[in-house]
Amino acid sequence: MAYRKVLHDGDETLRKTSKPVVDFDQNLWTLLDDMAETMKKSDGAGLAAVQVGVLKRAFVMQAGKDKVLRECINPKILKEEGENKIKVEGCLSVPGKCGIVERPEKVWVEYQDRNGKLISNKKLTGFEAKCFCHEFDHLNGILYIDKATEMFDDRDEYNRKRKK
Ligand code: NI
Asked: How far is CA 47 from the centre of its chain?
């Protein structure tokens, strides 16, 4: 496993649409391993392949209470419901900052695992639902700052303003 450099907002690659994964091979597994390591070392809850410069429809996330690492390849959002209670989010490609983004409380999703096996109609809630939607957006060249209704320079500013 190896740490990979994370692209930052302003890099044009982040605005490109990622392409479906066709080959579930060693190349993909190395990429997924590197992404998981990069996410953990950067203290992130999720990381999309495009963020390390690879335009493949794949992301990793570790956002649930039980800290299950999910590797989501060729993901789809089938259904959304409700309003997520967690409003604030951040992104390793927009270092330091955070912002308020409305996301669904529940999503029903499908994706393939690293071997190509289809995980279908999987229900995610809370932070996992929010995270899945954020990472899914990355695959279409969308950053959360495009959707944020309010932005903060850092967590301290967020905490100060939210307490008022
Ligand atoms: Ni992100």
From this structure: 5
80 is catalytic: no
| CA 142 to ligand 1 center in whole angstroms | 9
Cα–Cα distance measured from residue 49 to residue 51, given in angstroms and rounded to the nearest whole number: 5
Q: What is the pTM of this model?
A: 0.96
Domain ranges of the chain: 12-163
Using the mean position of ligand 1's atoms as its centre, give its distance from the Cα of residue 44 in Å. 9
Domain spanning 12-163 has what CATH number?
3.90.45.10
* 162 Cβ neighbours under 8 A, 6+ residues apart: none
Name the nearest CA neighbour of 44 among 57, 56, 26, 62: 62
* pLDDT value at 164 more than 80: no
